[in-house]
Amino acid sequence: MIFNSWEFASLFILVFGVFYAIVPQLRKWVLLIASVIFIGFNHWGYLALAVSTAFLTFGSGIWIDKYSDDKRRQRIFTFSLVAHLAILIFFKYFGFLEANVGAFIKILGFKWDPTITNVFLPLGISFYIFQSISYLIEVYWEEQEAERNLPDFMLYMLFFMKFLSGPIERPGNFLPQVKAKKVFNYTQTSYGLRLIAIGLFKKLIIANHLAGVLNEVFASVQDYSGAQLLVATLIYPIQLYADFSGYTDIAIGGAAILGYQLSPNFNRPFIAETITDFWRRWHMSLSFWVKDYIYEPLAFNKRSWGVWGISYALLVTFILLGLWHGDSWNFIIYGAIQGSVIIYEMQRTKWCSQWSKYLSGKWFKVYNIIRTYLIFSASLLFFKIEKFADVSYVLRHLFDGIRATYKEINLGMRDHNIIVLSLAIGLMFFYEYANSKWDLWGKLEKRPLIFRWSFYYLVVFIIFSFGDFGATDFIYLQF
Amino acid sequence: MELNQILEETNQIFKHVLNNPNICLTSTTTASDIDEWDSLNNIRLIADVEQHFNVKFKLREILKLKNVGELCEGVQKKIA
Lengths: 479, 80
Known about the structure:
The complex is a heterodimer.
Chain A: H1 6-21, H2 27-40, H3 44-65, H4 70-107, H5 125-140, H6 150-158, H7 171-179, H8 186-219, H9 226-257, H10 275-278, H11 284-301, H12 307-325, H13 329-354, H14 362-384, H15 388-397, H16 406-409, H17 415-437, H18 440-445, H19 449-466
Chain B: H1 3-17, H2 39-53, H3 59-64, H4 68-79
Helix pairs in contact in B: 1-2, 1-4
């Protein structure tokens, strides 16, 4: 069940109605039942694994919290961590490990017949395992008391608005909200509805329109000219952003209607002047997760190495961040590129500050924003394309036939779609810019009722008129 | 060692590591008050403070610190 489906819309409306109609004490049960339906709708196995993992995390937290002796706590924490990682590795990386171990054994000259070729990949596993690990670390670090109310904890783990693709919630942010009394709030509901509309606009008008054509290009790169590959490479970050930030807007908006505040995941990433800054603005719940739980412990342990220790920690952290996305060498390379560029940028910052007199103008800022976008676009080839050989082909042919005609670089899209897309993308970025400068929705709230509702109907009309309602999954569902 | 003296010496370390001679730390200063104090420089600051005062922190002690004042108090306790 995906957010842009009629099944989800029906479930959400039903949940919303029942949630505010019954007594507050029972409201969390409505969300819990809805979450169980939402997860189990696709496959009962997804539900079974998610619930079993939640039980394991719940029990491990209480077990760690039971002892005050540091060594014993560390032993229990390590055991729990390994158990959670084992679940993730088995379901997500088993095939990858088997293939690579097999290849290595063949290199050594031995025979190897892989026995298991396909392990079922449960939906949302990377997200909820990371959430579990976050909880266990916080309990182990004594930043969070172990939760002893099972239904509350289950809702933290399974809440359907964030289950599939995050945001990855920290226990300190979410658990107190589960315990707080929920009452209907008009302002919060209208805020949530507006976010859902923005999310649908991004997903249905921008991401879905681009998905068809870009999927075709990247699935058979040899069939396209260099200019077409260049255009596809430059546009893909926008599709990915519209898709994932659109999903996140719907998740945050839906949760807000039900009285929950989820963590932000994006903060205008394409204005970042460095890749370092970019990762503070892109998929923030994941990038802050790896910063707090992987980078900082690693860098702290190697602090006596100076800059080398920081570089080592950055590279390992970003390789793991890349690998989190999926079981392929391309994801590892994707992560390694991010880490390497950030290491380079640490040195570049020193160099830039020495020449700050000449390198601080508006044009240098524009240059940095474009540079960051281009680096990220190129690195996304490893994220989007499955075969390394195909990425290599794209990189080698990116600048072939640069004198291509408009007919060629429009990638077969109709003029009407290109006009709609260009306007929609412009509108998305302008809205984000304007909303960061002025309180747009606050200003709208002060307008007369008829003006506001005319505007809302116009947005809904635009979404229904220009949206692509084809059954396209959100990109991050695969993780 | 007096807390003020630790703060003053820590200030010199911050100026050097963050390459900013205008830094003026107080006990309530946090990372959000200084542009250059990010997660990359944080580790270098801790390493230099440890080396300068010849003390060692645990990761959990560092994670619990809320501001520069608590860092200086941590140093004071360790060298006492």
